[in-house]
């Protein structure tokens, strides 16, 4: 499921956001151009204006306060361009929040003729303006003069320039289609030989060049024909810098890329200067296959949450392979920093032949409560013990549904503590991982029957109390048992499975909301 695919990236992003949460200073900016909306006038405004960007915020949310002056500035700039910037206090208008599935703050939605899409731009005024300009304007700009070309060369984002025979021909159309689709690149088109030369293009039409400000500045498209597939793959391969330095600003381009494998190099500034040539050289071989990232250890604020996510101390230089999609697999690199060795590791990484690394807390010294504590390292011994029927709850310390479940789970374990064939266990899923555990939310409760440990575990579905889980165990235990369990009463209104909820394990917005909440020490989020 889509939510799960982005899971690990999302935890990482959220952890990052947590540490960079800033408390904004008192309002010393002018919000006159930000339109305030409520339930009564929302629909009217978004349907009577072609382009509207809406921010759903909560008054207590730190990220919203940080965004406010930037948003106000962008609103003033964009007002003259026919774009409305609006905001909704989602704690006051929770019905609107629900209608648009707002789970964290701030959430920005982009409305075109009343239809909305997520906003995926940055949070600085100029980034908002650039994103909106791109979404509301033509996707490709025509360069008519050398003066225009010089302006285009000043643009900070990567630019792609196509030289075509005619601005009306099929190649020009192919570039327009590409411009509509690709994020993070500004597209330009010209039919003028002199203009083309300004961008380093020769006399051949069609031709295309991609220019960046960073190392390896120029990439030239070398196919004879402008086919959609070849163009897309060229842009995907070349639009990112060879090595991206990890930050809140660059995180979306890393995690929302179609390239789902990453190298994360954790290194201090001096150390990186030594490794840089090797790392960049290796990166050239994996363009379009692996994103090469630098996590600068000198920038503690940014590095700390990423280190924590990978269970690293940050004391020494370390390279990790990471696949944020799927289940967020991690691969540790122990080789030396030579181009050959890195390439070798990269090829195995791409071919999926490396052994993943799973994080774990230390095995606790005592473990004699009725609910047994499982960590990554003790998973095999406890959960995969073939002689036991094992029920495992994977939880997160901050998850409200898990806290609600806890007394019931403890009660179940207490009632079953004399049944030797059954183990009731729990694992903190934020600090421990195992290849057999795939979770889509917290809590996830799964059952590993005795004698069938190689099979997929059975989901306990949505049973969330001692009676329901007891009934589930009675039905599924491989070794029959007797115990005095509370009687399970079928919920009245339901037709099929009883319904329970799991909190989105790693939903970016939700986690962000949660973290904001922690930072602000408030319970307001629950009202949503
Ligand atoms: C929309 O309604 C809200 C109250 O729900 C009000 O505060 C706001 O000023 C209204 N905005 C406009 C543009 O009329």
UniProtKB/TrEMBL annotation:
InterPro entries found in the cross-reference section: PDI_thioredoxin-like_dom, Prot_disulphide_isomerase, Thioredoxin-like_sf, Thioredoxin_CS, Thioredoxin_domain
Stretches the record annotates as Disordered: 490-528
Composition bias type Acidic residues, residue spans: 492-502, 518-528
Entry's Gene Ontology BP terms: protein folding; response to endoplasmic reticulum stress
Superkingdom, taxonomy of origin: Eukaryota
Cleavable signal peptide: 1-24
Localization annotation: Endoplasmic reticulum lumen
GO CC entries: endoplasmic reticulum lumen
Thioredoxin domain mapped to chain residues: 20-137, 349-478
Residue ranges crossing the lipid bilayer per the database entry: none
NCBIfam families: ER_PDI_fam, pdi_dom
Family in the record: Belongs to the protein disulfide isomerase family.
Protein's name in the database: Protein disulfide-isomerase
Species this chain originates from: Ceratodon purpureus
